[in-house]
């Protein structure tokens, strides 16, 4: 297999080698072809003298150089052919050898790397062994020390460490042996590889030689390609020269034509100025009239505004009266409510409930009344609509019957009459209905009641119905009158009918005029102005596509259809309906239009227009429509087929030609119409085909009448006629022909431009008459040849007649054969068979000459030439002579140094041509040598060159033209000093390069150093003539050193201009990560942020290892901390944080740059002042007009008494001295406050009209080295201005797509102070002020923060407002700040959200319990307490009673408090009144407490039955959520005006479990048993061994009651005093007197008697009796016991 593969590869190599040899043979053939082409090219160059450009040296040795270049080319080609290419097999072997040697080198490198790694591992292992041995010695030393010390624990630890170290040492030694063996093997392999490399060193050298040979071969092939390209370039240059010659000839002809056209245009301009002045005068008059109309319109508008203002003031007075009345009614209602509240309170009812029910009842009555009124108004509207529909149906039936009757009679003109009647009926109906509706809409609704509105609606509907019925009755009468006419009128009756019809037509005309007037009134009633954003829509409400309906080139009998599209161009929704078309188009045009209904702005609808022509004539009209904002129409045209014939030119100028030549020119006859015709070309009437003048008469006699005639015609005809006349004046040398041509051409132009055919025919006849008159008058001035002797020099070609089809053209040929020297002219007329086509005229002129020798190109133009450059051209000379002529060429003496003709003399053969080479080498002395031939201002050279014909007196001249200019480039300035430049930035300097030449020059700065850059276009470009170009030379230092260098600028012709430069490179201690920050397009009031780093890479002062910071070649900067400071310019919307800092070596500091564009405060203030001034001027003007109106009113008023008139005059005089707003001074912008309305309006206006701006800022960063301490401060810092760093900021600001419309457009959402734990919601409204639909995105707020985005907006339409909410719920007392970015596709809107959490704090005058004491049943007592707001937040409070809580029923179902343990016991609502109302009430129940203020609360206790356990919980709740204070309300109700309080309870507080008897039963028991029904238990505990007695109290009191008026103060006394004293009880006082409203305390103390048993409690009963007007007794139970000290403490 291997042998087969080797054989196959050898065959492939042989095939490739053969193909390579064949390619070399082909290339050899190509080289031979190249040699042949080169020899041909050099021979042609020597014969023709080609090569138009070259320098002075090249021109002197042109022949020698061409020979040398040819020889060198042939030599190079021979050498190339002798080169033998390297064989393919050798190249394959070369590549294989190269690959094998590379693999061997890679293996050797790999082995060296493996050996190096093994050595590193071995050295590491040996170092590890040494370290372990040292550690083992240290451990042995410590073991000996610990053994001596006897420290067993440390000894055992050290022994374990020693064992571990020994193990590691053994392992390391084993590892060392392994590494040594591996290293030995790797070394052996490396040495073997190196030995192999030594063997192949010879192959390395051979490989290098082979590669060099291959490279030489590639270079030689490249040279061959270069020679080929040079030969091709020379051929292309020859072709380019030929093309340039042709272009020069064409350009000369074009310039001559342009000169003639320019002269004609100048003459025409002078004549057109007169017409322009007249038209401008007419325009000025028209503008003056329009200005007067505008002023009148403005006065009418001002009067309307003034009347509107007066109506507003009157309505305002009415509204004020209504408001006063409403306030009085509200005050009365409030009084009634207070009376009702007092009455309900007196009755003991629920005030809130009763008032709520009363209000609901009143609202229900109002709703019922409004519903009745609405129902009535709807009934009236329905009835009116039904009546309208009935009237319309009736009217439609009548009109249809009348139409049928008129069609049956066939009376002429009836359709027009009935159409007018129908329009009149529609107009009347619409006018009345719309007028009534407009009155109802315009009536003021502020002071009208619902009843008045319904009444007005009823009247309107009745009026509409009545009008409709009246109209229908009138139509019936008219129909009856029309039907009385006979069915078949006779001949005698037709005259009367005609008279009648004319009378009816007159009536119809009168009705039509009245109808148009009424329609205008009707339109003013229903049309609405469209005012959007303060701008009124003007112009046509709908645009049509196409704007004109044009049926062109129609045929009778065919049907044409066209669709047009109507587009709503108004600002809002609009309607559109078809009104009709012009009367004369109704028989031919049919319009199909379906009303589309409501059409939003920008929507469109389609209309189909059908045209069926019956007659072959042009029609014009319009299709009329009606829109909501006014009527509009679309023009309609129908044009028949016609011929539109025109010539592309009216004058054929053959120029100057030699006798015997034949020249032909063509003229195009074009038909741009749709109708064809037959044409015929002939010579003009009265003229032969050619005319020639012998010039006997003087030219002055004939030109004057021609000019006078043309001037007279200029007043009648248009400007094209005058231009033709002027052309004819220039062209026609013969005076007779001049006048004839002038008149004929003027007549022709009149025929073409005249709108009517009769005038054109008359003009043509006048032209012919004028021609015949001129022929007869001037016959004696002309000498004409006989027809036999006159040769035909200008003739027509083959096509003289034929058919020209629609939309086609025909070429007509005119041939000029000059036979006699002189000027030749011919007139031609094109006649057409179509009578509507007027004849077309054109003329041809030419000049024939008879010189035997002539120059085809009499003007040799070298264009623009430069000094010291050679320019060559060939001048061709032709001979028409039949013999050989000798020619000599002569140039003026002054220019012999600069211009030369070769050869200087020569022979030209008969009827052949001769070429002369013209060489032009302008030298700097040309202006002095040329003299008058050279214009120094224009730099134009015109040199005449004379051709002398030997033995001939006549000379032939031709002119050499050239514009000579310099080739200098001026560089300003010539020296640049860049100054100090850091290595992190670039310094830019501007250089101006000026082209002193009037030719464009290419230039380029070549050989630029690496640290210099030139822009634009890398210092390359083209300078136009006399153009100056500013170049930016950017210098960027690569390292810290001093620079001095030169820049070289080369021009296109290899001239060099030098520019010297100097600079000093600085390496600062700090560097910036970014020197250019490009912010994204940021909307106004938005924020864009970018980050960069300040880095200190100065970690070593060694200059050899890296570049150290220094200035130029100075000392390096000190090593250590380096300070920086950013200085932001003033009025720069950029913030840099931090702006000052220090960076330690090897560290970096993060810098944040924020860009927040805003509107300038000065700009806003100026805009506000402008708006205030405009408003003041408008107000002053209105005030002035009001004063003028008042004065006019006073003059027209009825005369009154002298006293009144004198008072009035005094009042007028006083009013004239009042200062007007206009006379006040302009407000100072600095006095405007940012929160004023004018400031806010100006800011919003500028924000919406902002068009964007781009600002560029450069912020310096100053750098200082050194450390700063507290004592010396910054004295140790060394700062150099050359180390300053710069940051360039590109800040584009754009108009915001979104603006905030809420809170006066503020972008800061401030929640202010909010209570901690409470939520506050704010709504923010944004508006889309862009023209695109936008999708909004919101940035994520802090999820753990207090701010929350509620209901975000997804999509917003253009101009739409959307609202979203942000809630604030602080969780602690501090300030909070966040930013919310509203993201759109283009810009972002940043909202700054702030708020402060405040912990609400209050102080209550009552701490926990408010005891209202004892109150007589069915009486009340009040008590007040105060709550003070000690926080900075306004607190919203509400007072809640547990007895009125919704959870009261659940609380009653729990266990009572006396059953539960004291730890679990809770106070519930106690005894309540039997009426179901709470025994306690408080006022006010809700409200707000301002920060730092206090609020008084009144608590009322009114029991309705006797109980000691009246209680309730009062809660002060803040913000409906937090309970600030809880107060327990207590009270007791008693049936008698005396009470006893104190002691332990003998019953339960829950009334249902107390087991009390009803009141009547208790009274019966008291009467029968005469026992006290109330008992009081006093418990006294004496501490064993204590010297202090056991003490308690008992309270007795008398209540001030209106039910029990006491005549005598009650007295109290305690019985059984002896027994009590015996038992150890002592009472003080035991008796006393109580005043009303007074309470006294009875102190009880107990000391156990000596004979008492400490284990048995003492129980004594005594009776407490009240005496006076009311007698009451209480049983007092005294229970005492002795307790130990431990029990007492527990």
Give a verbal description of the structure.
It is a single chain. With 1690 residues, this protein is α+β, with helices and mostly antiparallel strands. Helices cover 39% and strands 30% of the residues. The strands form 18 sheets. Strands 41, 42, 45, 47, 49, 50 and 51 form a seven-stranded mixed β-sheet that branches. Strand 78 (1658-1667) and strand 79 form a beta hairpin. Helix 4 (88-149) packs antiparallel against helix 5. The longest helix has 147 residues, at 201-347. It is flat. The model is unreliable at 1-85, 405-416, 430-508, 521-527, 686-790, 1199-1224 and 1555-1572 (pLDDT under 50).
How do the strands and helices of this protein lay out in sequence?
Layout: H1 2-48, E1 53-54, H2 56-60, H3 62-82, H4 88-149, H5 152-199, H6 201-347, H7 351-409, H8 414-442, H9 450-483, H10 491-526, E2 531-532, E3 535-536, E4 542-545, E5 549-554, E6 560-568, E7 576-581, E8 589-592, E9 604-611, E10 619-627, E11 630-640, E12 645-647, E13 651-658, E14 663-671, E15 677-683, H11 699-716, H12 719-731, H13 735-753, H14 757-777, E16 794-796, E17 801-804, E18 808-816, E19 822-832, E20 840-849, E21 853-854, E22 859-866, E23 870-879, E24 885-890, E25 899-902, E26 905-908, E27 913-920, H15 926-930, E28 934-935, E29 940-949, E30 956-965, E31 969-972, E32 975-982, E33 987-995, E34 1001-1006, E35 1012-1015, E36 1020-1023, E37 1028-1035, E38 1042-1051, E39 1056-1067, E40 1071-1072, E41 1076-1078, E42 1082-1083, E43 1088-1095, E44 1110-1111, E45 1122-1126, E46 1134-1137, E47 1140-1143, E48 1148-1155, H16 1161-1196, H17 1202-1216, H18 1237-1248, E49 1253-1265, E50 1278-1279, E51 1285-1294, E52 1298-1300, E53 1308-1315, E54 1320-1328, E55 1334-1335, E56 1337-1338, E57 1347-1350, E58 1355-1356, E59 1361-1368, E60 1375-1383, E61 1388-1398, E62 1402-1404, ...
Parallel strand pairs: 5-11, 13-20, 22-30, 32-39, 41-51, 42-51, 53-61, 63-70, 72-79
Antiparallel strand pairs: 1-23, 2-3, 4-6, 6-9, 7-10, 8-9, 10-11, 12-14, 14-18, 15-17, 15-19, 16-18, 19-20, 21-23, 23-27, 24-26, 24-29, 25-27, 28-29, 29-30, 31-33, 33-37, 34-36, 34-38, 35-37, 38-39, 39-44, 40-43, 43-48, 45-47, 45-49, 46-48, 49-50, 49-51, 52-54, 54-59, 55-58, 56-60, 57-59, 60-61, ...
Helix pairs in contact: 1-3, 1-6, 4-5, 4-6, 6-7, 6-12, 7-8, 7-9, 8-9, 8-10, 11-12, 11-13, 12-13, 13-14, 16-18
């Amino acid at each position: 297999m291997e042998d087969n593969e080797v054989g196959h590869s050898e065959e492939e190599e042989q095939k490739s080698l053969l193909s390579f040899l064949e390619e070399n043979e082909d290339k050899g053939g190509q080289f031979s072809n190249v040699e042949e082409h080169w020899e041909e090219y050099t021979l042609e160059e020597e014969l023709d003298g080609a090569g138009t450009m070259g320098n002075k040296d090249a021109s002197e040795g042109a022949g020698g150089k061409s020979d040398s270049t040819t020889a060198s080319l042939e030599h190079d080609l021979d050498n190339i052919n002798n080169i033998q290419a390297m064989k393919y097999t050798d190249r394959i072997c070369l590549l294989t050898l190269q690959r094998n040697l590379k693999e061997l080198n890679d293996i050797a490198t790999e082995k060296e790397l493996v050996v190096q790694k093994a050595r590193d591992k071995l050295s590491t292992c040996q170092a590890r062994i040494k370290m372990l041995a040292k550690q083992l010695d240290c451990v042995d030393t410590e073991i000996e020390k610990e053994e001596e010390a006897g420290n067993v624990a440390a000894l055992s630890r050290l022994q374990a460490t020693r064992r571990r170290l020994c193990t590691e040492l053994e392992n390391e030694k084993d590892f060392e042996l392994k590494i040594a063996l591996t290293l030995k093997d790797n070394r052996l392999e490396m040495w073997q590889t190196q030995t192999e490399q030594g063997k192949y060193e010879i192959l390395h050298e051979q490989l290098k030689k082979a590669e060099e040979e291959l490279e030489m071969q590639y270079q030689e092939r490249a040279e061959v390609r270069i020679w080929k390209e040079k030969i091709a370039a020379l051929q292309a240059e020859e072709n380019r020269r030929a093309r340039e010659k042709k272009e020069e000839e064409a350009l000369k002809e074009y310039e001559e034509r342009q000169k003639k056209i320019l002269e004609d245009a100048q003459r025409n301009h002078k004549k057109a100025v007169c017409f322009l002045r007249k038209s401008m005068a007419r325009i000025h008059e028209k503008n003056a009239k329009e200005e007067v109309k505008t002023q009148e319109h403005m006065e009418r508008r001002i009067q309307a505004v003034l009347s509107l203002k007066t109506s507003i003031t009157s309505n305002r007075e009415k509204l004020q009266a209504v408001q006063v009345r409403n306030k009085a009614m509200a005050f009365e209602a409030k009084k009634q409510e207070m009376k009702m509240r007092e009455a309900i309170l007196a009755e003991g009812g629920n005030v809130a409930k009763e008032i709520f029910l009363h209000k609901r009842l009143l609202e229900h009555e109002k709703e019922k009344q409004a519903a009745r009124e609405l129902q009535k108004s709807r009934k009236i509207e329905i009835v009116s609509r039904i009546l309208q529909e009935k009237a319309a149906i009736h009217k439609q039936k009548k009109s249809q019957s009348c139409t049928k009757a008129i069609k049956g009679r066939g009376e002429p003109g009836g359709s027009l009459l009935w159409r007018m009647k129908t329009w009149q009926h529609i107009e009347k109906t619409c006018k009345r209905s719309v007028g009534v509706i407009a009155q109802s809409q315009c009536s003021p609704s502020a002071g009208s009641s619902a009843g008045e509105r319904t009444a007005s609606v009823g009247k309107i509907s009745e009026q509409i119905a009545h009008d409709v019925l009246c109209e229908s009755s009138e139509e019936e009468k008219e129909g009856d009158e029309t039907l009385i006419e006979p069915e078949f009128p006779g001949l005698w009756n037709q005259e009367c009918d005609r008279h009648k019809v004319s009378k009816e037509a007159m009536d119809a005309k009168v009705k039509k005029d009245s109808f148009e007037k009424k329609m205008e009134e009707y339109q003013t009633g229903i049309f609405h102005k469209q005012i959007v954003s303060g701008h009124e829509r003007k112009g046509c409400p709908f645009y049509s596509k196409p704007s004109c309906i044009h049926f062109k080139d129609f045929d009778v009998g065919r049907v044409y259809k066209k669709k047009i599209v109507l587009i709503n161009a108004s600002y809002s929704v609009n309607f559109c309906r078809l009104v009709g078309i012009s009367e004369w188009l109704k028989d031919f045009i049919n319009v199909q239009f379906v009303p589309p209904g409501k059409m939003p702005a920008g929507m469109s609808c389609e209309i189909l227009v059908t045209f069926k022509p019956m007659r072959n004539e042009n029609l014009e009209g319009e299709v009329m429509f009606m829109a909501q904002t006014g009527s509009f129409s679309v023009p309609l045209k129908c044009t028949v087929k016609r011929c539109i014939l025109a010539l592309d030119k009216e004058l054929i100028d053959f120029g100057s030609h030699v006798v015997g030549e034949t020249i032909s020119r063509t003229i195009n006859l074009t038909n741009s119409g749709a109708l064809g015709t037959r044409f015929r070309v002939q010579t003009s009437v009265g003229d032969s085909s050619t005319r020639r003048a012998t010039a006997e008469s003087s030219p002055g006699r004939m030109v004057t009448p021609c000019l006078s005639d043309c001037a007279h015609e200029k007043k009648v005809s248009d400007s094209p006629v005058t231009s033709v006349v002027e052309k004819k004046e220039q062209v026609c040398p013969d005076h007779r022909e001049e006048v004839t041509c002038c008149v004929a051409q003027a007549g022709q132009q009149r025929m073409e431009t005249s709108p009517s055919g009769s005038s054109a025919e008359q003009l043509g006849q006048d032209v012919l008459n004028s021609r015949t008159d001129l022929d007869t008058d001037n016959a004696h001035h002309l000498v004409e040849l006989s027809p036999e002797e006159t040769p035909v020099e200008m003739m027509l070609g083959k096509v003289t007649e034929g058919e020209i089809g629609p939309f086609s053209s025909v070429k007509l040929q005119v041939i000029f054969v000059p036979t006699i020297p002189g000027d030749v002219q011919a007139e031609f007329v094109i006649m057409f068979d179509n009578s509507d086509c007027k004849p077309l005229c054109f003329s041809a002129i030419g000049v024939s000459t008879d010189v035997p020798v002539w120059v085809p190109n009499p003007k040799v133009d070298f264009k623009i030439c430069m000094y010291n450059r050679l320019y060559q051209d060939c001048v061709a000379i032709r001979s028409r002579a039949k013999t050989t002529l000798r020619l000599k060429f002569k140039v003026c003496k002054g220019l012999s140094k600069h211009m030369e003709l070769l050869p200087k003399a020569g022979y030209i053969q008969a009827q052949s041509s001769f070429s002369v080479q013209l060489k032009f080498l302008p030298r700097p002395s040309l202006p002095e040598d040329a003299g008058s031939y050279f214009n120094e201002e224009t730099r134009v050279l015109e040199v005449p060159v004379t051709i002398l014909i030997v033995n001939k007196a006549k000379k032939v001249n031709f002119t050499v033209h050239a514009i000579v200019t310099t080739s200098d480039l001026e560089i300003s300035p010539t020296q640049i000093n860049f100054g100090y430049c850091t290595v992190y930035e670039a310094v830019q300097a501007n250089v101006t390069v000026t082209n002193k030449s009037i030719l464009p020059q290419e230039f380029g700065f070549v050989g630029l150093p690496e640290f210099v850059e030139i822009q634009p276009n890398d210092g390359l470009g083209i300078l136009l003539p006399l153009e100056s170009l500013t170049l930016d030379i950017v210098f960027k230092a690569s390292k810290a050193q001093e620079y001095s260098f030169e820049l070289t600028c080369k021009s296109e012709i290899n001239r060099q201009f030098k520019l010297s430069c100097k600079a000093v490179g600085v390496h600062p201690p700090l560097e910036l990560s970014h020197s250019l920050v490009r912010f994204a397009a940021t909307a106004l009031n938005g924020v864009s942020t970018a980050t960069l780093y300040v880095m200190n890479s100065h970690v070593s002062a060694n200059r050899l290892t890296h570049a150290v910071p220094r200035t130029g070649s100075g000392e390096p900067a000190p090593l250590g901390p380096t300070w920086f400071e950013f200085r932001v310019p003033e009025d720069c919307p950029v913030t840099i944080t931090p702006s000052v800092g220090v960076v330690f070596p090897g560290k970096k500091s993060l810098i944040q740059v924020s860009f927040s564009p805003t509107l300038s405060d000065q700009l806003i203030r100026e805009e506000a002042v402008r708006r205030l001034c405009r408003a003041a001027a408008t107000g002053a003007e209105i005030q002035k007009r009001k004063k003028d109106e008042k004065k006019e009113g006073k003059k027209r008023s009825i005369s009154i008494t002298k006293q009144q008139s004198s008072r009035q005059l005094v009042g007028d005089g006083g009013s004239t001295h009042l200062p007007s707003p206009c006379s006040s001074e302009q407000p100072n912008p600095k006095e405007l406050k940012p929160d004023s309305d004018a400031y806010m309006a100006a800011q919003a206006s500028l924000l919406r009209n902002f068009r964007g701006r781009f600002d560029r800022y450069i912020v310096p960063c100053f750098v200082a080295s050194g450390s700063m301490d507290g004592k010396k401060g910054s004295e140790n810092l060394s700062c150099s201005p050359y180390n300053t760093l710069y940051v360039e900021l590109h800040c584009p600001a754009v108009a915001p797509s979104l603006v905030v419309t809420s809170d006066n457009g503020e972008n800061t959402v401030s929640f202010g102070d909010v209570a901690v734990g409470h939520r506050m919601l704010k709504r923010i409204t944004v508006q889309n002020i862009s023209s695109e639909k936008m999708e909004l995105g919101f940035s994520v707020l802090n999820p753990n923060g207090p701010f929350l985005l509620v209901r975000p907006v997804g999509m917003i339409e253009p101009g739409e407002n959307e609202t979203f909410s942000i809630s604030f719920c602080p969780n602690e007392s501090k300030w909070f700040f966040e930013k919310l970015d509203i993201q759109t596709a283009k810009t972002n809107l940043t909202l700054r959200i702030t708020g402060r959490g405040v912990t609400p704090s209050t102080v209550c005058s009552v701490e926990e319990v408010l005891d209202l004491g004892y109150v007589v049943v069915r009486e009340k007592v009040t008590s007040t307490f105060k709550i003070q707001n000690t926080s900075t937040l306004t607190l919203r409070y509400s007072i809640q009673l547990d007895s009125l809580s919704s959870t009261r029923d659940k609380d009653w179902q729990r266990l009572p408090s006396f059953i539960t343990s004291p730890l679990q016991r809770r106070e519930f609502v106690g005894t309540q009144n039997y009426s179901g109302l709470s025994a306690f009430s408080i006022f006010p129940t809700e409200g707000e407490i301002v920060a730092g203020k206090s609020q008084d609360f009144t608590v009322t206790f009114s029991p309705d039955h006797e109980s000691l356990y009246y209680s309730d919980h009062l809660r002060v709740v803040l913000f409906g959520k937090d309970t600030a204070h809880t107060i327990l309300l207590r009270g007791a109700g008693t049936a008698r005006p005396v009470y006893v309080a104190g002691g332990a309870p003998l019953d339960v507080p829950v009334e249902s479990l107390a087991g009390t008897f009803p009141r009547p039963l208790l009274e019966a028991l008291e009467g029968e048993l005469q026992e006290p029904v109330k008992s009081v238990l006093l418990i006294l505990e004496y501490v064993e061994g204590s010297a202090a007695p056991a003490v308690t109290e008992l309270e007795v009191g008398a209540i001030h009651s209106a039910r029990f008026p006491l005549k005598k103060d009650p007295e109290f006394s305690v019985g059984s005093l002896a027994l009590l004293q015996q038992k150890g009880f002592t009472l003080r006082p035991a008796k006393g007197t109580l005043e009303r409203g007074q309470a006294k305390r009875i102190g009880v103390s107990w000391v156990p008697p000596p004979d008492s048993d400490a284990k048995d409690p003492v129980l004594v009963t005594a009776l407490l009796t009240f005496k006076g007007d009311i007698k009451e007794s209480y049983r007092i139970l005294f229970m005492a016991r002795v307790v130990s000290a431990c029990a007492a403490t527990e």
